[in-house]
Amino acid sequence: MTRTALFCSRLVAASWFNLAGFAAIVINAITLGLETYDPVVAAAGPVLHAIEYACVAYFVVELLVRFGASGSAFFRDRWNLFDLVIVAAPLLPGVRENVTLLRLLRLARIVRTFRFFPSLRIILIGIRRSLPGLGSFLLVTVLLLYGYAILGWMMFGEAYPERYGTVGQAMLTLFLLLSLDGITDTLQAGREVTEWAVLYYVSYMVAACYLLTNLLVGVVLTALQEAHDETRGAKASEPPLHEQLARLHQLIDELERRLPQTGKQESLPGPRTMERELLKD
C-alpha cells in the first residue's frame, strides 16, 4: 500500500470525513431550496452559485479520496458508482444545458446521505426488499377498487355521474376516499339514493381503509426486519479489527517458533517488519 493510498484510507476512516460530506449535502440542499425564492436569487444569486460550485468541488475531491483509498475496488461499491454518476452527470454535454435535469440531479444528491448513516441504509434496503410484496399489495388494491367501482357505478352512476359515471371515475372517487376525507358527506349523499349505500361504504372502509392499510404496514415492517437481520448478520460474520490483529500476531509468533534457531536468524526480518510487510500485502 502506497503512502497516498494509506493517507486516503485514513481520511475515509476518520469520523469527520463523513460528517463533512453530510454537511456539504445539507448545504447543497438548502442552497437548492433558496433558489426557489426570486427575492433571494436577486439579492444573493452569485453567492448561491459560488456555494453550489464549492459543494461540487468538495464532492469531486471526496470521490478522488475514496478512489485513492479503494483503488479498483472503488467501482465495485454501488454507492461509489451512484456518487460518481450524480457528480459527473452535470458535466456532460446536453445535460448541463437542461435546467430541469440539472435540478433533478442536484436534488438526487440528497440521497447520498444514506451512505453516511447505517440506519438510513437499513431503511433503503427494507424498501428494496419490500418491492415484491408491494407489487402483490398493489394488485389486491386495484382488484378491490375495481370491484367496488363496478358496484358504485351500478348504484350511483345515474345520480352522481361526475363521481360514478364511469368505472375510471368511480375508481378515482374510491381512491380519494382511502384517506376517509369527506366520507360522512359521501355516505349521506349515498343514502339519499339507496339505503344499501351504508353497507357499501362501511364494507369499503373496513376492507380498503383498515385491512389494506394494515397489510401494507405488515409488508413494510417485515421487509425492514429482514433488512435489519441481514445487516446484523453481515456485521457478525466479519471479525472485528482487534481480532484480525490478534490472529496476525499469533501467526507471526507461530512462524518465529518454526524458524531454525541458527545464525541465519540474524538476517531474517523481525516480527514487526514481517507484520508491516503482511499489512502492505
TrEMBL record:
The chain crosses the membrane at residues 12-34, 46-67, 134-156, 168-187, 199-224. Gene3D superfamilies: 1.10.287.70, Voltage-gated potassium channels. Chain C. Keywords: Ion channel, Ion transport, Membrane, Transmembrane, Transmembrane helix, Transport. Its main location: membrane. It comes from the Bacteria. Residues 15-231 form the Ion transport domain. It is a multi-pass membrane protein. The keyword Transport applies. It is found in: Membrane. Residues 257-281 are annotated as: Disordered. GO terms for cellular component: voltage-gated sodium channel complex. The keyword Nucleotide-binding does not apply. GO terms for molecular function: voltage-gated sodium channel activity. This is Voltage-gated sodium channel.
